[in-house]
């Protein structure tokens, strides 16, 4: 289970996990040979973070500048800002609580499954070279920090405050916490997809060599481990995904509302220009985030279905060898039973159809927001 025996994507998640421990996005587990867990220290640190969050919320509620930030703009913007703050605070506090007190067993099982799969698959093929692999992740951070810095600067101009005060006042720190959660989520989904693809390639090789009888049990076990890993992923991230999607919906509505306010409310042309440019960047970035979550998940589910399809197609054109036919039939039934499915707490499946629901709901609420603004602007 050492680092040298692990594939590139799992090694990245291991090292990234060490960084995320500081924010308690993940439990304090050292993914070594013994999966070292430090429960007392984690619970103390988690309790400290939660108490500090409570004190910060109390302080901010008494701070005139902070209150004025959420009372700035149209009524619709004030409502959306408050709802966004509640969603983000819930995401942060629930993540800290789960990582400190509840999620350690799920994470331990998830990494045990990754290591077990690596032993069976003997090296998952990587599409990216190490430099490209890490540069792509660094680029995501750079883009986010650039956008965050730009928006912090805009709000410092609007409220005529320092950059540091803008960082403390605006929810930019929440956004970074959410962004780190997204990076972890997308890395795990990519790891699942890589293993399903590799399993499909290995199945094709075995089927062409007519060696399924010897390998059928191994394939069934690997496929089951992958499906169980996806279920563990659902247990860890289900409600986080719901909160992230809800936040993105609120942010898109707020961005569209900002377009409206920039045109009809704000008089400072310099501020209006920066708001329009910044809001456009946010919409483009949110589109990327939503697609970066949904597309890999959809691709992973399709790779899982491809395994079942390969079994069915081969079963229809198989040789009269009864042992091979029986092995293939058992593998097909097993694969159908353990097909991958991503869900958000069991409330709905996460797939490409969610994009259309997302757009429809956003537009419906935006129409309501415009009606609120229309009544507010009537003299």
TrEMBL record:
Function: Gustatory receptor which mediates acceptance or avoidance behavior, depending on its substrates.
Membrane topology: Multi-pass membrane protein
InterPro entries: 7TM_chemorcpt
Pfam families the UniProt entry points to: 7tm_7 (PF08395)
Record-stated family: Belongs to the insect chemoreceptor superfamily. Gustatory receptor (GR) family.
One Gene Ontology biological process: male courtship behavior
Name of the protein described by the UniProt record: Gustatory receptor
One CC-aspect GO term: dendrite
Highest rank taxon of the organism: Eukaryota
Main location: membrane
Regions crossing the membrane: 12-30, 79-101, 142-168, 174-192, 241-266, 272-295, 353-372
Keywords on record: Cell membrane, Membrane, Receptor, Transducer, Transmembrane, Transmembrane helix
Localization per Swiss-Prot or TrEMBL: Cell membrane
